[in-house]
Amino acid sequence: xxxxxxxxxxxxxxxxxxxxxxxxxxxxxxxxxxxxxxxxxxxxxxxxxxxxxxxxxxxxxxxxxxxxxxxxxxxxxxxxxxxxxxxxxxxxxxxxxxxxxxxxxxxxxxxxxxxxxxxxxxxxxxxxxxxxxxxxxxxxxxxxxxxxxxxxxxxxxxxxxxxxxxxxxxxxxxxxxxxxxxxxxxxxxxxxxxxxxxxxxxxxxxxxxxxxxxxxxxxxxxxxxxxxxxxxxxxxxxxxxxxxxxxxxxxxxxxxxxxxxxxxxxxxxxxxxxxxxxxxxxxxxxxxxxxxxxxxxxxxxxxxxxxxxxxxxxxxxxxxxxxxxxxxxxxxxxxxxxxxxxxxxxxxxxxxxxxxxxxxxxxxxxxxxxxxxxxxxxxxxxxxxxxxxxxxxxxxxxxxxxxxxxxxxxxxxxxxxxxxxxxxxxxxxxxxxxxxxxxxxxxxxxxxxxxxxxxxxxxxxxxxxxxxxxxxxxxxxxxxxxxxxxxxxxxxxxxxxxxxxxxxxxxxxxxxxxxxxxxxxxxxxxxxxxxxxxxxxxxxxxxxxxxxxxxxxxxxxxxxxxxxxxxxxxxxxxxxxxxxxxxxxxxxxxxxxxxxxxxxxxxxxxxxxxxxxxxxxxxxxxxxxxxxxxxxxxxxxxxxxxxxxxxxxxxxxxxxxxxxxxxxxxxxxxxxxxxxxxxxxxxxxxxxxxxxxxx
Length: 695
Description:
Layout: E1 8-17, H1 25-43, E2 50-55, E3 58-67, E4 73-81, H2 82-85, H3 94-102, E5 111-115, E6 118-127, H4 132-145, E7 166-173, E8 176-177, E9 181-182, E10 185-188, E11 190-192, E12 201-203, H5 210-216, H6 224-241, E13 245-246, H7 250-259, E14 264-269, H8 279-289, E15 293-296, E16 302-310, H9 317-342, E17 358-360, E18 364-365, H10 366-384, H11 388-397, H12 405-409, H13 416-424, H14 429-437, H15 452-471, H16 485-498, H17 505-515, H18 525-543, H19 548-555, H20 562-576, H21 581-597, H22 614-635, H23 639-647, H24 650-659, H25 667-685
Parallel strand pairs: 7-10
Antiparallel strand pairs: 1-3, 1-7, 2-3, 4-6, 5-6, 7-8, 9-10, 11-12, 13-15, 14-16, 15-16, 17-18
Helix pairs in contact: 1-4, 6-7, 8-9, 10-11, 10-15, 10-17, 11-14, 11-15, 13-14, 14-15, 15-16, 15-17, 15-18, 16-18, 17-18, 19-20, 20-23, 21-25, 22-23, 22-24, 22-25
């Protein structure tokens, strides 16, 4: 049967359950759809567009134009080689008879296959495709079994296991039921609507009608993204009606969407006195505990309003509003209590408590770490034009907010609480900001500290952690990184690179290592951490499109500052585009190989009296001219202009290698030629190791 003649029908599958875990709903839907589609492909069932549906009490998918049967197939099974299939008299061997028996036929019904590589017995058979209704139950069951469910449950007296009890199974191909029982639920044409608005069975006559019938009759918006867009619109509209802007956090939007089948907005209010509490704490409790959407004024201040989504079109929405207000009030009152209690002490009053909190058993307490960070941050402040005294104090206070009641109750408030408390203590504004910036960047893509004090203590914290943990032998291995050292390295690199800080990274690491003397189990930790950070830096540049060899060309000379590293990367990238780049890269590679292979000591100086050929003198003259021109450029870190000067060496270098035998018989002449090549290589290595470029 040709592809155009394949019979198709639309397919609907829906598993009806108790409310599914809201944070896992999207993941379950994606995984189920992927596995079901894979099953269709593996079975050879052709199909068209696939639409996934996910709501609190259902996982479903609609497959358009699903083939009602597999296509027929011609199958060729290859048996033994002819020379093994027959004996000298031409009679079938046991190998031939065994192969025929496995094919349910006789040897005389087998064919012979002749190829360039030999001859074999073969069995050709026309296999009729199976019906889709016979294959689909297995495909669905396999997809359900492969869902990422950490712990499955049983219910009632059933042996079936799933993430939640299963109540119904809608499974149709065209207008017919796909007969099967999955998870103790028998397939039918029936689905169920909203738990309260339409708890009765709804008979479906066509898979095409699924979403529309559920929406209009069942009061269920089955499509996750459609429902999410509806929630977002309703929250924005409700907030706009009170002159506010909602906090439309993506994770919260997903979770609320997963909790509601028929979303309806309810606007609530809380007492204005609670606004004295840091707004981040109020937001955290509204979003985290209650799944409410906080509302902000146009100038970014938290309003004493919130939006909730009810899963019902209530005739008495005021009762729902009052209930929402009633349950959030104790949470806000707790936050107010913690804020008032914490106000009875200053940040500095908590310094002593840090002595009793262990950072890491070999690296001391949190107070020890704060002291190290303070000293290292003061060192950084010297190089970024910061206030050393202010930075040292910021380092000492940086972890004190961990001892507050507020952070104990709301861990996400660390740093933020430090900022509020420092201001309440009357500390300088920069120090207060630095208490929050200390933790930046908190995650990939997060904003960086901006104040010089914040930059210093944030960078010092990450460097001290890297050196300390490496120094006690707990560096990351494979996927294991319990101290989040990769994240610390990436954060430090972003600060150094994006702020173009003029800090010698090796010197900074050595300073951190010196501050940990007596506690480290290994030596040379600064170099180990530098290499670890370079590996992370390679990833940053790779993600931004920098080629691997461009990165290696710069990394091989180990620049002192990340700002300088960045400058050299741009210069080498530009150099690659020059017409001379390919030849000069090859020449430097050749020079490197020659110098590696020689066992003799290479002189530091070139002696012009030992030249025997014009090409030697010409290259030497050009090298001297280049060296003179490059010196002032390098003093100004004008690497681009320096490489432009060196690019003019291409002609003399090509001529030198064409005319001159480097490894001459006379030791003095040979050594002199090697010295000249070494001099040339060193000129380039002032900027980058261009020998590794694959131009």
